[in-house]
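Structure request: 698_t:CDS:1, Acaulospora morrowiae.
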Amino acid sequence: METSLESVDYTDDEFLATTFKPRTWIVQRIESMIEKIISELAIGNVPVIHSVSNANRSHSGYDVRNGAIRRKTKNLDIRQISFLSSKGPRGFAVFIRILDICHELLVQNITATKRDVFYKDVQLFGNQHTVDVAIDELACLFRVPRTCLNVTASAKGLVAGDLKIYQKNKTLLECSSA
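Returned structure:
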């Protein structure tokens, strides 16, 4: 039996609750995380970020009522991102950079696409997937929809309406015809 998105009950404890939070709340959380990291470094400790990981997207569903991705709690893992992890400091640096970019977006009250975020530090991120996962983990950690981080997804190749494009080679691209 096929289940439509509208018929899925996202209110039970099976799913992680995500709610819209004000920009100021998220900015304070980011600043608090950074302060804790700096404090740990100041006393000679290795800072660790505890993140919520949901790498398996098949255990997620889209809640049409509030526009949020809902993650099944039984599939969430708490992972530690450490500067001295076996994978090296890159994962830690990526997460800190994502925090920095989201903080900047929220303080300035501007939005960016995930692709825009990727291009802010291509050398560090390496690929778009790294950014996508880090942003989703941050949203999951704060239990907010990604849009609360002022980060959106961008549509690819979507055109609607009566549009004609005259290309440089003098050909006509007519978008209204199938």
